[in-house]
Amino acid sequence: MSEVSHRRTPPEVSRRRTSPNLALNQLVEERRAAGQEVLHLAFGESRLPAFAPLAERLARGAHRNAYGPVAGGEPVRRAVAGYFGRRDLPTGPDQIVVGPGSKPLLMALQHVLPGDVLVPRPAWNSYVPQVRLAGKTAYEVPVPAECGGVPDPAALRDTVRRARAEGGDPRVVVLTLPDNPTGTLAPPALVRQLCAIAEELDLVIVSDEIYRDIVHDPATPFLSPAEVAPDRTIVTSGLSKTLALGGWRIGVCRFPDNAWGLAVRDGVVSVASEVWSTLAGPMQEVAAYAFSEPEEIRRRLAASARLHGAVARSVHRIMVDAGADCRPPTGGFYVYPDFEPMRDRLASYGVTDSPGLQRHLFDSHGVLVLGGHHLGDDEGALRFKAATSMLYGDTAEEQEQSLAAADPLALPHVARVLARLEEAFVKLSR
Ligand SMILES: Cc1ncc(COP(=O)(O)O)c(C=O)c1O
Question: What is the distance between the alpha carbons of residues 292 and 294, in angstroms, rounded to a whole number?
Fold first, then answer.
């Protein structure tokens, strides 16, 4: 009998490597086992404990062992609709689907939305693989100088025109507000400009707003494309970042309230019904509580945003003092420095590109970052992402202290790691 074709590895799978984050975690473990101190800033996780009232809800939901509706039960969808309503996006529960993280919801969208996809460069490292897994083409468009998370408007127009002239069919643009990896938020004027281009070129907008509630300064204006272009914008969010619940897997998706939006919702529900069935019942209990935003949740979010801001600004200063260009962080917990101004100095250490910079920081200074090449950026550039949320302490107790402190930078366990980071970057720039 000849070899059957279905036993061959599908091309999209054989082309994929394991997510770089996992490989890096392994490296860190090896070094730590060998007794070396490593500052691990390569993982996009909010290193904070689960808030006690959330754990209580989870326990209270343990009896919810039935499958339940695929889109999520009415109570959780109503709570999520209320959350969006309080953010100038009037929403009915029928416009909401909840799922096990926003990642599978984003993947389902890639399956359901027709056409190729425009993604900012650099961007969160799952967008492009998801587009490819869905059998589509990803067009990576550079971000503007002022902020990340969105394509530069002129470059977006050019890319769509060129792609269409060459037979491609870009129909979807992904925005990240605020952004991973740059830790910045596109200002309202830019969001309006991009929405106008989306209207002009007939693009669907997928607005990933998973970091929305941890914009550092509550006075910073946030404009969702769903306010400007409500008929063509799908919003995703979740609790992984804002409430540090990545491992609990709670994501949400908001669809436009029109025939097209509800058809896309039905498509996502159809994918969900074949892949994950529904968000786990106990998690729906947690989500219904968190998205209804009682006072204690609002206080927790405000404290988290303050802490993320204080530490991200401190790391930003360390990078700038070491000679990097770096956009000031305004949301989430990342900085994305560019060491181009230090190219000659770094070349003297044999560092000429982003893999080399990542390797040198790890091997010579015990600092692990994620090179920009993992995020779609030019390999020849000298950029990386540092997740500053890894600096809040090693234990839940230290992390709670960091959250509660008026000046977290003055806490010995935070001051110590920041001093260690500073020392590494002072040495790098010498
Ligand atoms: C921009 C962005 N979107 C989506 C996700 C996925 O989050 P989750 O699947 O935990 O909701 C992440 C997580 O790293 C992210 O950074």
Answer: 6
Is 72's C-beta closer than 6 angstroms to any atom of ligand 1? no
Confidence of residue 24 (pLDDT cuts 50, 70, 90): confident
Q: What is the pLDDT of residues 403-421, one digit of tens each?
A: 999 999 999 999 999 999 9
Question: What is the CATH number for 32?
Answer: 3.90.1150.10
Which of 246, 270, 293 is the last residue in one of the domains? 293
Neighbours of 180 (CB within 10 A): 25
Q: What is the pLDDT of residues 76-135, one digit of tens each?
A: 999 999 999 999 999 999 999 999 999 999 999 999 999 999 999 999 999 999 999 999
User: In the sheet that 96-99 helps form, which strands lie side by side, from edge to edge?
Assistant: 96-99, 251-254, 233-238, 204-208, 170-176, 116-121, 138-142
Q: How far is the CA of 291 from the centre of ligand 1 (A)?
A: 17
Whether 103 lines ligand 1, by a CB cut-off of 6 Å, is: yes
Name residue, tokens 């309006």.
192
Using an 8 Å Cβ cutoff, are 261 and 255 in contact? yes
Mean pLDDT of 365-381: 96
| Domain hosting residue 83, numbered range | 52-293
Beta-strand relationship, 251-254 and 96-99? antiparallel
Mutate-to-test residue for ligand 1 from 240, 243, 245, 385, highest number of ligand atoms within 8 A of CB: 240
Alpha carbon nearest to ligand 1 atom 6, residue? 103
Mean pLDDT of 345-373: 96
Q: Is the CB of 237 under 6 A from ligand 1?
A: no
**173 within 8 A of 201, measured Cβ to Cβ:** no
- Asked whether residue 340 carries a pLDDT value surpassing 50, the answer given is yes
C-beta atoms surrounding 377 within 10 Å: 23
Mean pLDDT value of segment 54-74: 97
Question: Are 321 and 341 in a shared domain?
Answer: yes
Q: Is 208 in the pocket of ligand 1 (CB under 6 A)?
A: yes
Confidence of residue 36 (pLDDT cuts 50, 70, 90): confident
CA distance 422 to 239: 31
